[in-house]
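Check this.
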Amino acid sequence: MATTLDSTDPAACASQPSSTTAANRPPCLSMEARRARFWRPSAPKAVAADDHWATWMEHLHTRRTPQPLESLCATDRSPLKWGLALQQLSPRTLELLEIVEGLVAKPKGKSRATLPLAEKTLARWLKESNSLPQTIDFALECLAVAHALPQLANRIAPARWWELVDALWQVTGAASDWRSDAELPPEQGLAQQLLAGELPLTLAYLLPEMRPVHKLRADAHEALSEGLVELLNGQGLVRGPYLKVFRPLLACWTRCRAMGEQLKKGCWNRKAEAQYQWLVSQAICLSSADGQSLLGGPHGKPWTPDFLRTVLEQGGDRADLTAARSIFAKKLTRTLTGKEDRRYPEHSDHCEWSSVAIMRTDWRRSAPTVAVDYSAPELQLEVWAGPRRVVSGTWTWQTTVDGQPLEPIGSWEEVCWFSDDDVDYLELSIELAGGARLERQILLARDELFLLLADYVLDAKAGVLRHQYRLPIDDRLAFQGEKETRDACLTAGKPLVRVLPLALPEWRSDKRIGELTFSNSQLQLEQQRSGQNIACPLLLDLHKPRTTKACTWRQLTVAESLEIQSPEVAVGYRAQCGKQQWLIYRSLASPANRTLLGQNFSTESVVARFLAPAGEIDELLEVEG
């Protein structure tokens, strides 16, 4: 927690408990500034010799280096706003950010008009900061004040200026022992990097003439190096919960690297630098075609041109530049410079430690993209059909046996991840009460351009087994169900995505099994049957030109040793959209040699193209089980 003091009262400084500052650190810089060896040789000699505050303020006002952060990032707006949903910040935080932008980013003639407001706001901040928790808002306020210090020199009273310095100095002392940990809640993890890493680095960069402040580089170096290593998986990917602050965290590290380039030893170690470069590639991969951060929540706003350019300049390579120019619109990439590459970064990735999967068919703007966060039982899913978002939010579900709910036990576990030229495939499993389990399949077919989302409830207690799940559809899309059949289209003026509930009868006149419905921007699939196992698949055709073509699907008969098997044992489906046809098979019991549609399978799952009229198949995926 920040503690502010009156820098004109030496007794107040001396009375502070040592626990609020780092070991051997003076509690108030304003008092230390009167002592020998406080100033480094880069300070004006008159200040070091005679404590002439006017000379010091004039020096800050007229010096050419260090340059403001806006100059380092070649932008006319405050980089402190990068990656943030400004409406999520407190009014005081927004006010301070606007003041900094007015003082630093705007022409000097306009900045003086901001000064009366700045003095009033800063005085209120000083008064209130001793009761503020170490949050993202407070961290941004501290950074805003720090970046305003050089511009405020010679414009506010020296005593007030030193009060601001003392307040920030004590914040860095309080945050110096705050360690980075991926188990921290995301908001705390971001606040830790802002306060324990970026803030001391900012002060050391902006006020290098002060010897104690210059030494803050070591604290910042340690905190930032630790943060990049602890919060990333070794290849630049954060844990699932941190996707909500992914862009603000990237912004923090990008600002630090821009300042670190001006410092002799940089801002972090070599291992952290490698992580940052990986992080830049992941940031492009975790972007939608319109520049939003996948699964980013409120802070998932689209890139701004200056933010994207600076990130690529600081840590990107030619492959990252090529990918960015491929998927983003020209208005976002028009300021990017540099040569492109024939190579692209990997467009799909998965990490069990992160509990995150990214699926992308290719790097074109029209490419379907899927992001999954299964770090909590409330699995998060985001689906894009090119530049249009289709699904975004929690993939909710409910399972009951004879009306009694089967609650999840524990968390999702990865069963299988597979990626090749044909598909990206993720299979997850979570234990349910009573010994049952839910297995979830997510398959994106790259050339075929369809998405298979399927739930399988297995080994439940015998009874009436009911399973339903809801997909949160983007509220800009409309649901257009067919009158006679159960398929539907999600439309954005024109049909965008075709939805086929494969386990339900195609014709609405057949009332068995369940229903596909839509309400309050939720697409709901509900099915029930008597038994212990149930399969609930949905096929989303993401190829827009096919949505106006005829479609159909059928549940297939599965046989074993010439005997027809019930859906308790295995299920099979044949789907057709336009001229394309697909075969989907899943064993719900132990795999065995079974037959459907003239094909023999002894594996757990198969997804294949069905080649009519020959009746042959071309396998896209086979899971042995």
